[in-house]
């Protein structure tokens, strides 16, 4: 297996090239998706310079965040969040990318500790509504965004999507393009937003071409995940 440092460098170069080819003013940000990886693997990537890590489950993330405290890492929750875990999530994460309902907005705002900066929030949009289970509908984005923006303990940063994994890349592009349209419309209402999170190991290049400012990459960085038992 390639050294983590080399894998990271290759991936950052690919992200950079795609951003440049799409004439983006800034390269897309790389979120390293560290679900199922242990704290040592994450530390290896952190030593190589990676700062932002994404986790799917609050319970799985807590011991890793604790073990790596003090290293200046930035933690993003990218998995579905149950309301009864909003308290823990609001205390330990820097970003929650999976906000998709008003109840969660209220719970995160209530539990974000005053000693921490406002929690960065992305609204997860269910852009291919037949296949994915979570995320708000596109026509719910405005009301949810206004609810986040009204909470001083939250900071609205943009949108996130997990389009259905169509084998046909043209169909994935349609979803990415639809997300870009939603993002631009939201930015007209909330000029402070800056993040459109979409694209994973298999499709981060087309995602960047269609407007992603953050890509979430797991297996292309850490190697294939073991099947869930
Ligand atoms: C697992 C996961 C990723 C990363 O997937 P890879 O194909 O391993 O790059 C990105 N986003 C979310 C929401 C995920 O659950």
From TrEMBL:
Function text: Pyridoxal 5'-phosphate (PLP)-binding protein, which is involved in PLP homeostasis.
Presence of keyword Transcription regulation: no
The organism is Thermomonas brevis
**Which positions are tagged coiled coil?**
none
PANTHER family per UniProt: PROLINE SYNTHETASE CO-TRANSCRIBED BACTERIAL HOMOLOG PROTEIN, PYRIDOXAL PHOSPHATE HOMEOSTASIS PROTEIN
Domain Alanine racemase N-terminal intervals = 21-225
- Report the residues modified as N6-(pyridoxal phosphate)lysine: 35
Output this protein's name. Pyridoxal phosphate homeostasis protein
Q: Which UniProt keywords apply?
A: Pyridoxal phosphate
């Amino acid at each position: 297996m390639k050294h983590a440092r080399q894998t990271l460098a290759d991936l950052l170069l690919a992200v950079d090239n795609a951003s440049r080819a799409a004439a983006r003013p800034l390269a897309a940000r790389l979120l390293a998706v560290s679900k199922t990886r242990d704290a040592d693997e994450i530390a290896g990537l952190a030593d190589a310079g990676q700062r932002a890590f994404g986790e799917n489950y609050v319970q799985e993330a807590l011991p890793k965040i604790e073990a790596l405290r003090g290293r200046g890492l930035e933690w993003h929750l990218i998995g579905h969040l149950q309301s009864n875990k909003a308290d823990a999530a609001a205390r330990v994460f820097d970003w929650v990318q999976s906000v998709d309902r008003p109840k969660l907005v209220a719970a995160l705002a209530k539990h974000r500790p005053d000693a921490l900066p406002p929690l960065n929030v992305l609204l997860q949009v269910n852009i291919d509504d037949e296949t994915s289970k979570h995320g708000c509908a596109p026509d719910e984005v405005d009301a949810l965004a206004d609810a986040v923006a009204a909470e001083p303990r939250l900071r609205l940063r943009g949108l996130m999507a997990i389009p259905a994994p169509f084998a046909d890349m043209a169909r994935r592009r349609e979803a990415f393009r639809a997300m870009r349209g939603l993002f631009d419309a939201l930015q007209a209402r909330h000029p402070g937003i800056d993040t459109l999170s979409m694209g994973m190991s298999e499709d981060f290049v087309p995602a960047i071409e269609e407007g992603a400012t953050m890509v979430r990459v797991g297996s292309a960085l850490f190697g294939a995940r073991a099947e869930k038992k």
